[in-house]
Design a protein that fits this description.
The chain is α/β, with parallel strands linked by helices. The chain has nine helices and eight strands. α2 runs antiparallel to α6.
């Protein structure tokens, strides 16, 4: 696994002993995402730029779907083939309850979110192909240690915990940070309901208050006549 390259900027917050123990428990074949993308979320969002931590469950278990970015699909994934959780997230982030009288562009990889300062993590960084939750307990000690240390050293960030599994980490987040708890998008996909766009407005309200800027959830293009 490309540990040193992807975790280079995060070394201060990584317990190498726990990481080594975790990797000894996790195979390098038949896993999601592929081994080169396990730490991709860390690579795309540096500690100094991190404003928000999104925490979910475990990666998509289907072969060649997970990318190492929470909820993200590959850039070239066709609209009709998007993962159900990403469809839910996309609809809420764009907010179709308001009119869009101009072209918009949404990044289905969600890499643009990571590059704006969102650490897009699953609470288990791998899973066995077609076996949801198979590596949850293997990753848990490492993730607890990471979240506890990072939230203590770099406080004032916003932690968004998607679903019950992610919310079990709430007690390890330093109280000088902000915590938002919400249902996992898979929940809405299962019951065929939409996630409220309010989540993304609430996040941006906090981000603007803390950092003086907002996350651009999608690009809009207003053309002058």
């Amino acid at each position: 696994m490309s540990i040193l390259n992807d975790l280079e900027e995060w070394k201060t917050f990584i317990n190498l002993r726990l990481l080594k123990e975790t990797l000894e428990k996790v195979p390098t074949i038949n896993i999601c995402p592929n081994k080169d993308n396990v730490f991709r979320a860390f690579k795309l969002c540096s500690p100094k730029d991190c404003k928000i931590v999104f925490l979910g469950q475990d990666p998509y278990p289907q072969k060649d779907v997970a990318t190492g970015i929470l909820f993200g699909n590959k850039k070239d994934t066709l609209e009709e083939n998007l993962s159900p959780s990403l469809k839910v997230i996309k609809e809420a982030a764009i907010d179709y309850t308001i009119p869009h009288n101009y072209p918009i562009e949404f990044d289905n990889s969600l890499e643009s979110w990571a590059e704006q300062g969102i650490l897009m993590l699953n609470s288990a960084l791998t899973t066995e192909i077609n076996k949801i939750g198979s590596h949850v307990m293997a990753w848990r000690p490492f993730m607890i240690d990471f979240i506890r240390l990072f939230s203590k050293v770099q406080f004032g960030n916003i932690y968004v915990l998607f679903g019950q599994q992610a919310q079990t980490f709430a007690s390890y987040i330093d109280k000088r940070n902000f915590i938002i708890r919400t249902n996992h998008p898979a929940y809405y996909a299962r019951i065929n309901q939409s996630m409220s766009p309010k989540l993304f407005y609430d996040i941006n309200e906090l981000v603007e208050k803390q950092f003086g800027e907002k996350i651009e959830w999608y690009k809009d293009f207003s053309y002058a006549e």
